[in-house]
Amino acid sequence: MTNTITEQLTPAGRQIEHDSFAIVDREAGAHTYSAAEWPIVRRMIHATADFEFNGLTRFHPQAVAAGVAAILAGRPLVADVEMILAGLSAPRLAHFGVALHQFIAAPEVIDQARSANTTRAVQAMRCAHRRGLLEDGIIAVGNAPTALLEVVRLIEVHALRPALVIGMPVGFVSAAESKATLAQLERVPWIVIDGRKGGSTLVVAAIHALLALAESQQSA
């Protein structure tokens, strides 16, 4: 059955996107991803024209199933930065009842970061945790390695159990290390990009791919 909610709105837009996916499939060649994982990697390549994500992207064994289930259940999505929220399709998320949250610019977060001499990203994740948004939710990190490290700390120290952690911070200080740390966890599903590459664009692409998979399952 053809998706309608998670497709481009016009026939011309849909054709361009489908043609682009076909080019990615052809040029990417062989890969080791499952049938559920490849649409996510393909959309990330489509968003960046970078075929290195065929190989750099890694999945916890339950990542895709857990992410789709969380979307179908309308669980909240918490991002580290507003850019992720700006890139996501509001109508697609609304179809599943998924609410978006980010606290990086909240006055209380700024004050706490200053008083504790930590980053806003750390305090933003603590704020989301206090509000009960991280438990069974989707956590999306595309910019701040300290946010991802704080999520790992909450998982290990406070027994936090998010539905899925999408860990794709970009950068040179702790970015690769934060993702490698997340990827060592077995009890929480995750999707990561190895190394320094990452960013909000990739997180958005991964979430849109999960939304499309959720719609396909909903319509089956």
UniProtKB/TrEMBL annotation:
InterPro entries: Cbl_synth_CobH/CbiC (IPR003722), CobH/CbiC_sf (IPR036588). It comes from the Bacteria. Keywords: Cobalamin biosynthesis, Isomerase. One of its GO terms (molecular function) is precorrin-8X methylmutase activity. One of its GO terms (biological process) is cobalamin biosynthetic process. Residues 15-212 form the Cobalamin biosynthesis precorrin-8X methylmutase CobH/CbiC domain. The keyword Isomerase applies. Pfam families: CbiC. The lineage of its organism: Bacteria, Pseudomonadati, Pseudomonadota, Gammaproteobacteria, Chromatiales. Pathway: Cofactor biosynthesis; adenosylcobalamin biosynthesis. It comes from Candidatus Macondimonas diazotrophica. Belongs to the CobH/CbiC family. This is Precorrin-8X methylmutase.
